[in-house]
Structure formats: structure tokens, C-alpha cells
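Hello,

Our lab assistant flagged a job as stuck in the queue for most of the afternoon. It eventually completed. Since we weren't sure the result was trustworthy after the delay, we are filing this so someone can double-check. Below is the sequence as submitted and the structure that was eventually returned. Let us know if re-running is recommended.
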Amino acid sequence: MGNDIINFMKLNVKELLDFFDNKKDDIRHDISSVISVVGEDLGAALFKRYYEEIFGKKVTISIFPVVSGTMKGPRLDRWIYIEQSKNKFTAYQTEIKNWSAYAIGARRVGTDPKTIPAIGLLNLKDRIKRLEHKDRNGESKVLFPMKKPIDFPNKASLEPLIIYWFVLSKDGKNLDPFFKVNMNIKGFKKLNVFSMSNYLRSIKKKEITLDMPSAEKRIKLLEKYFPINK
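-- returned structure --
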């Protein structure tokens, strides 16, 4: 394990926001394919970077799957562990949604910073309606406890986390990247929410580097089997 080489991916913050949040006719038929290559790595890596940067705590993204323990039960995307202090952990069972401006029903974000929080509030209200739906769905499944994997930290506090690309706002004024919402549903009563778009908008650097192993592997496979002649 000590000899493993981590190759970080370099991302342009402004271009990434423009790519996901502003529709363009020349890529609208390709966006889903691109997102499938990136997968859930982007959301997990951005959350890790945010939490370590803001709270100064070690964040570990588990390699083990998030399953309910039954054959037909729901699955989530990642186990994320936060080392709050010595022998004290928070374990997030995490669902990641890369829905962008091209998703069905998505609102236009635009470039005016004064109007973006209001759009974020509408987006959050939409998501809460879906999360509180009486039938378990692709979002509300995060609110039901999953089976703990073998690397689950001893005595860790289990919490649900959902990571969206969407711009989100609790009050229509601020774009906090990470916040909690109360949920009127069986299972967990509070939900942790992280917005990738919100976080990227708070970054002042032109570029950031992220560890995205699954995305990196897919890109290398594409380069190997479908090389571009230059």
C-alpha cells in the first residue's frame, strides 16, 4: 500500500462550472457520457477537499460498497469517514448526484451572482419534496441505514450525506457548500447536504487537483483503446 502512486487530476474551476451549469448546444448530446466517465469520484473528491480544508479533519473514502444487506435492497455510492478526533469518527453513507444544467427540469443558473442563491433555494425545495416522498426513490434511499462494511470505524456515528452538483441554498441568500436539513421521514431525521457547484464557486484558485481513481482509470482505458491520432 505504501508504494501506491496517486495521480491527481487537475481541474479548471471556472471551466468546470461553465461546463456543468451552462447549457451549450455543441455538448448537450455528450454531457451524459462525460459524466458517466467522471462518475461519483468528482463529488466524493470535492467533499473530501472541502472538509479537510475547512475543518482540518482527515477524510477517508472507503473502497467498500454501500449496500443494504439484501439482494434487492438499495445501494448508495460511497462510504466516507471523518476522523473527528482520536477514536471518534463520523461515517457518512453517501449518495452522489451529478445532475447538471442538462438534466430534465433543471433551472438555468446564469452568471449573475445576485440571482443564483434564489435559484438555489428553488432547487433545494425540489430536492426536499423528492426526499420526503412516501416511496423510496433514487434520493430518499440515502435516509435508510445501510449495512456497515468491514472497515467501518469502531463506534462511529452514522449519518446520511447526499452530494448534488446543483446550486443549492437554504435561505435564497447564501451558497453554503455544506449544511443540514431536517427530514420528516422514517430513518434519519437530519440529512447532510453538499453542493459541488456551491463549493467550486467559493474557490479562488484557477485550478485544483483531486484524487479521482475510477475516473482516471476510465480515461486511461479510453486513451489506450480509442487513441486520437495527432
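-- support follow-up --
The delay was a queue issue, not a problem with the job. The result is valid. The mean pLDDT is 91. The chain has one domain: 9-225.
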